[in-house]
Amino acid sequence: MEIAIGARTNLEPVVSQHLDINLCTRMILTRNSVHLITSLGPVILEDHKNQTVDAGFNATFNCAAKVHPMPSITWIQNDDALAVQLNLRIQETDIFLDDEQIYSLLIIKDVKREYNGKYYCFSNNNREKASKPAFLSTKDLGETYALYFLSWH
């Protein structure tokens, strides 16, 4: 998108005042005009939440992003882009809601302590990027049963 503000126009440079978008703006000054060049960056619409899960159970993170052109979502564990892809217990599902919005689920099956850490929802539309972290922590079933037992006595 390009907005040209010339010397004879009364166009105010109000961009993205109440819109749900990220804008990266660059200004180009010429002899007779000012040009604002903006590119749209992804917006993460739904943040995934920190979770504490009993060992052996499943954890699910969800994330939604919107931008034009359509963004992709990649999940990253502890700053390691391959950790999610290489773990057979982790399943990614992307649902395309329309031509600008994507919803993604990350399901971690049979959670183990080594899966603890930071999980990023990383959105990219080949122009701009956005990411949001959430943390996964596990507790052993023994801890859960001990707390349950103590709460009844």
| Overall number of strands | 11
Number of helices: 2
CATH class of the domain at 43-139: Mainly Beta
- Give me the secondary-structure category: mainly beta
- Report the major sheet: 4 strands, antiparallel
Task: Kindly identify the CATH topology of the domain at 43-139.
Answer: Immunoglobulin-like
Pfam families: Ig_3
Protein name: Ig-like domain-containing protein
Domain Ig-like: 42-137
InterPro entries: Ig-like_dom, Ig-like_dom_sf, Ig-like_fold, Ig_sub
Question: What features would you describe in this structure?
Answer:
The protein has 153 residues and is mainly beta. It contains two helices and eleven strands. Mean pLDDT is 75; it is low at 1-26. The longest helix has 12 residues, at 141-152. Strand 10 and strand 11 (129-139) form a beta hairpin. It has helices at residues 81-86, 141-152; strands at residues 2-6, 22-29, 33-41, 43-46, 51-54, 59-66, 72-77, 90-96, 101-108, 117-124, 129-139. The strands form three sheets. It has a four-stranded antiparallel β-sheet with strand order 4-6-9-8. Strands 5-11-10-7 form a four-stranded mixed β-sheet. 12% of the residues lie in helices and 51% in strands.
